[in-house]
Specification:
By secondary structure, the protein is an alpha+beta fold. The protein has one domain. Helices cover 35% and strands 19% of the residues. It has two helices and three strands. It has a three-stranded antiparallel β-sheet with strand order 1-2-3, covered by helices on one side. The mean pLDDT is 89.
């Protein structure tokens, strides 16, 4: 989500995280009303699960790592067109 979509007390921290990622050559795609949590690394590694990657982890969060270029491409296309 865009940092502006977070609760007010989390907006500035989220902005800083997005800026830090981008400053380190990581492409960050923000999308309105998105509730999926995933990262695609090197166009083939997918981290997917319930963990909000720009927030603090919760005890019941989970992530799954899949190394599959086709799955990464399909997930990106489904989400961003």
């Amino acid at each position: 989500l865009d940092p502006e979509g977070y609760p007010e007390e989390k907006i500035e921290d989220t902005r800083l995280l997005v800026r830090l990622l981008r400053d380190n050559a990581i492409n960050v795609h923000l999308k309105e009303h998105m509730h999926e949590h995933f990262a695609i690394i090197d166009d083939e590694i997918v981290w997917y699960g319930s963990m909000n990657l720009l927030s603090r982890a919760k005890a019941d969060d989970n992530l799954m790592r899949v190394k599959n270029k086709e799955a990464a491409i399909e997930l990106f296309e489904i989400t961003f067109g």
